[in-house]
């Protein structure tokens, strides 16, 4: 039985991933030197494809890490001196704030209940704040953060760095990078790949802040200092031996997405959301966890179940439809459905037909 993974990450592999993996094996990608010309060529291709797909300007460069979790740590070490500010509305936005505290940096938390996002509030951010982080798509609850509120905070706090977690929304959002200093994701969700690679879309201000702190004689970490990473990145290199295979495969998958076009990817994402919405609105068994449409994510859709969620998950799994459970305390009566580029419209039509039979 062929399985379709609607889990929020790791998730369904992009349809062409397997063929690109086979090509990588034939080209011995796993054995080449990361200082070779061949490596630099496909590193550059991966960066250029990502920039084209997501409209990233030349003011921003691409830094590679092991995961988005590592990026949290590196952002704090490189960019925070007097304090960070975290908008928290779920487990993952909260985890970033916890990491900040574990590193013993000052941080302020502004929290709202699960299922809600944030609007602009004047005078909320302390003047001493170095970095403000938003989670564009809270994977644990299926909440999407309206970007205009993010931009308004940047307009009113131009000296603070704005970073955006797009782990479970990339490549869907159309971002104004003049108002975002850093955006980051992992490849096991919207990019349709196995886990093991984190990507930071880094604006020049991240590098400048790291350099400023370093020049004061303070630590900004060791081998993943943004100042050094930036110097390597602009020459399509990394500080250490990176996940060569994943960087190669990411470039190939991004190339396929470019052929399809980001406009079509976004159109299909919204269409798949509409297909699921019609089923949920008609069903006596399901309802949306996120009540306000403005905060309802189209890429991780959270649904409350009338009965125990495990009963629905088992019935779906029996037909090869692998759907994720709710996160943490939400697990007993909630399911989460990923809507990534690897999922076709026909995949969602199949899922919708089965859901409508409950």
How would you characterize this protein structure?
This protein has 358 residues and is α/β, with parallel strands linked by helices. It has two domains: 4-11 and 261-356, Aspartate Aminotransferase, domain 1, CATH 3.90.1150.10; 17-259, Aspartate Aminotransferase, domain 2 (3-Layer(aba) Sandwich), CATH 3.40.640.10. 39% of the residues lie in helices and 17% in strands. The chain is built from eleven helices and 15 strands. It has helices at 17-26, 37-54, 68-79, 91-102, 147-156, 204-215, 226-233, 244-260, 262-282, 309-317, 345-356, and strands at residues 4-5, 60-65, 84-88, 107-111, 131-135, 137-138, 143-144, 161-165, 182-186, 198-203, 286-288, 300-305, 321-322, 324-325, 334-338. It has a seven-stranded mixed beta sheet with strand order 2-10-9-8-5-3-4, sandwiched between helices. Strands 11-12-15-14 form a four-stranded antiparallel beta sheet, with helices on one face. A hairpin with an 8-residue loop joins strand 14 (324-325) and strand 15. It starts with a strand and ends with a helix. The mean pLDDT is 97.
Compile the SSE list and pairings.
Elements: E1 4-5, H1 17-26, H2 37-54, E2 60-65, H3 68-79, E3 84-88, H4 91-102, E4 107-111, E5 131-135, E6 137-138, E7 143-144, H5 147-156, E8 161-165, E9 182-186, E10 198-203, H6 204-215, H7 226-233, H8 244-260, H9 262-282, E11 286-288, E12 300-305, H10 309-317, E13 321-322, E14 324-325, E15 334-338, H11 345-356
Parallel strand pairs: 1-13, 3-4, 3-5, 5-8, 8-9
Antiparallel strand pairs: 2-10, 6-7, 9-10, 11-12, 12-15, 14-15
Helix pairs in contact: 1-8, 2-8, 3-6, 9-11
């Amino acid at each position: 039985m062929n399985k379709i993974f609607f889990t929020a990450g790791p998730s369904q592999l992009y349809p062409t991933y397997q063929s690109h993996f086979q090509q990588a094996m034939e080209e011995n990608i796993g054995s080449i030197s990361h200082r070779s010309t061949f490596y630099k060529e496909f590193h550059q291709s991966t960066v250029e494809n990502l920039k084209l797909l997501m409209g990233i300007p030349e003011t921003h460069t691409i830094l590679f890490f092991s995961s988005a979790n590592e990026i949290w740590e590196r952002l704090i070490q490189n960019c925070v001196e007097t304090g960070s500010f975290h908008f928290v509305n779920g487990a993952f936005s909260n985890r970033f704030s916890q990491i900040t505290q574990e590193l013993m940096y000052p941080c302020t938390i502004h929290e709202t209940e699960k299922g809600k996002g944030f609007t602009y509030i004047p005078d909320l951010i302390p003047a001493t704040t170095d970095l403000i982080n938003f989670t564009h798509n809270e994977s644990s609850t299926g909440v999407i953060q309206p970007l205009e509120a993010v931009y308004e905070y940047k307009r009113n706090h131009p000296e603070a760095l704005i970073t955006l977690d797009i782990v479970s929304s990339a490549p869907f959002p159309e971002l104004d990078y003049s108002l975002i200093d850093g955006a980051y994701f992992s490849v096991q969700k919207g990019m349709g790949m196995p886990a093991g690679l984190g990507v930071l879309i880094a604006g020049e201000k991240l590098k400048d802040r790291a350099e400023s702190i370093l020049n004061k004689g303070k630590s900004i970490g060791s081998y993943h200092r943004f100042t050094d990473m930036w110097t390597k990145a602009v020459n399509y290199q990394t500080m250490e031996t990176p996940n060569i295979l994943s960087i190669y495969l990411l470039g190939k998958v991004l190339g396929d997405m470019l052929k399809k076009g980001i406009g079509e990817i976004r159109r299909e994402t919204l269409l798949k959301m509409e297909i699921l919405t019609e089923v949920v609105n008609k069903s006596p068994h399901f309802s949306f966890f996120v009540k306000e449409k403005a905060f309802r994510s189209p890429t991780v859709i959270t649904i409350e179940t009338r009965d125990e969620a495990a009963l629905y998950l088992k019935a779906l799994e029996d037909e090869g439809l692998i759907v994720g459970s709710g996160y943490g305390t939400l697990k007993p009566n909630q399911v989460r459905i990923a809507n990534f580029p690897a999922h076709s419209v026909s995949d969602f039509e199949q899922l919708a037909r089965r859901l409508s039979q409950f």
